[in-house]
Design goal:
This protein is an alpha/beta fold. The protein has 8 helices and 6 strands, in the order H-H-H-H-E-E-E-E-H-E-H-E-H-H. The mean pLDDT is 89.
Length: 274
């Protein structure tokens, strides 16, 4: 029985949204682990940024929490929960409004020691990994890919775009990107494999420093949402699968708060892209 509560804990209404998607294995001994406590522990890790061994003692044992986290990420449970919540958020905010645009971008982050796929992004002066994401016109996640930081955005784009298969992008007509995706090989791949056109929005001639680009600020805002989770301030995972899963979990937690805000969650209003 837990004696402490934390700001990252799910409310009853939020738990009711995801409980039906957690797998139940028939047969064998009755489960003694509280799955809600397991999910709360994973969200505590995500929001606080602590190591697995530093989980508070009132959560289930870290080995148990890790086992469920690992089982569900490999079985696609987190992806199923994410996609179901995204449909609900989309329907609540823009009913009967199909997606016609999407945006793509990347973010380089430092890594802690060890792990696979690490490199140096000389342009950002970062040793670590790069998160590539595609978001819809509301900034909701459609696909995520984590690579070494030295991987060129245009080179990673075909694998990232391939992950859009099965996602609700049937009516998307334009994919907005910045100048890093201006690549003739990528244009050729898009022309052969996608139903949408890649539209590069460049910086105004002669501009210096940060510039707010039309439409593309939507994906930048999504990266800002991810930055609320301390686990994502650096890439602390040994595998890219874990890195991608925590990005998905961050969006799950955000959408739960949008759909069923708690007492401390301010109401959220989506801003239409200009």
């Amino acid at each position: 029985m837990r004696t402490m509560t934390y700001p990252s804990d799910l409310t009853d209404d939020q738990w009711a949204l995801i409980e039906p998607y957690l797998p139940v294995h028939p047969g064998g001994r009755p489960r003694s682990t509280d799955l809600r406590a397991v999910v709360d522990a994973i969200l505590y890790l995500l929001r606080s940024g602590c190591a697995w061994r530093y989980l508070p003692a009132d959560f289930p044992p870290r080995s148990t929490v890790w086992r469920y986290f690992d089982e569900w990420r490999r079985a696609g449970v987190w992806d199923a929960i994410h996609d179901a919540l995204r449909r609900k958020v989309r329907a609540a905010a823009k009913p009967y409004s199909p997606r016609t645009t999407a945006s793509v971008d990347s973010q380089s982050v430092d890594t802690t020691c060890g792990g696979e796929q690490r490199g140096r992004d000389n342009a950002k002066n970062i040793d670590g990994r790069k998160r590539h994401i595609v978001v819809d016109s509301m900034g909701l996640l459609l696909a995520v890919l984590v690579t070494a930081a030295d991987v060129d955005d245009a080179a990673a784009a075909p694998e990232l775009f391939s992950r859009l298969e099965g996602q609700p992008v049937g009516r998307v007509r334009r994919m907005f990107a910045d100048g890093k995706y201006h690549n003739h090989e990528l244009y050729g791949w898009v022309g052969e494999n996608a139903r949408w056109a890649l539209t590069v929005i460049g910086r105004p001639p002669g501009s210096k420093g940060w510039v707010k680009l039309p439409i593309r600020w939507m994906v930048e805002r999504t990266f800002a949402w991810l930055g609320r989770c301390r686990r994502l301030s650096k890439d602390r995972e040994r595998s890219v699968l874990s890195s991608e899963t925590f990005v998905t979990l961050a969006m799950i937690h955000l959408m739960l708060k949008r759909l069923k805000p708690g007492k401390k969650d301010a109401p959220f209003r989506y801003k239409r892209a200009a």
